[in-house]
């Protein structure tokens, strides 16, 4: 093994190629510096310098070791500052779990904010539905969930990020798109519907079935991802009820129309995190979100 002092002594001699000048640079006398180098060479069992009465030169092994020694010293010098910045939340990693639909209206903007204001915080992303985010938060596998309610408000802190309407995604030219008014539940009673999965997209499934008079006899397809629903609408397979942010997907062959009965902006997305989290970077990110 070797010490940082031995590495610093080695680098000084390697750069000066003179023990006297290297010792002066390190504010020490030459004999202890020579003993440091000898101890280093014994420790790694490699001769680092060729020495004679007139000059000092690096061996081939010494030249290679110099490259790595400089890297080790740079890491050692930067480590305390990095630790302080991580402790203060100025650096570190935040792991975010997100629902696919949250990418349409929010995730990109959130990442841009973090990149602009907290550039030394790394963000790791994992796509998962809300019911997968909850155990991941509890186990510490993610730090923040971008999730749909409900969730345990005693276990998690939360912040409402945004609300939005539900709309009908219609095949282009569909008669319901030419009503000149909002679509009603009665309008949808006999229509083919592309429906949210009651297990993988339970939040949206519950929102639709408790609001509109639709039954599984209307359902021609049941899927978990909103993008898939809209693509099926474009293929003429039926109508889908989706959050308004899905309209930014810009898929050809799809029109969107207002739907009565859901109330104002019923679709909610929250940031949730464990109350007892000790990740300082998480709290910096949440402070940034609070100020947005």
Automatic annotation (TrEMBL):
Keyword Nucleus belongs to the record: no
Key words of the record: DNA-binding, Transcription, Transcription regulation
GO annotation, cellular component aspect: protein-DNA complex
SUPFAM superfamilies xrefs: Periplasmic binding protein-like II, Winged helix' DNA-binding domain
A Pfam family this chain is assigned to: LysR_substrate
Keyword field contains Transcription regulation: yes
Domain HTH lysR-type per the UniProt entry, residue ranges: 1-59
InterPro entries according to UniProt: LysR_HTH_N, LysR_subst-bd, WH-like_DNA-bd_sf, WH_DNA-bd_sf
Single GO molecular function: DNA binding
Family to which this protein belongs: Belongs to the LysR transcriptional regulatory family.
Protein name per its UniProtKB record: DNA-binding transcriptional regulator, LysR family
Organism: Crystallibacter crystallopoietes
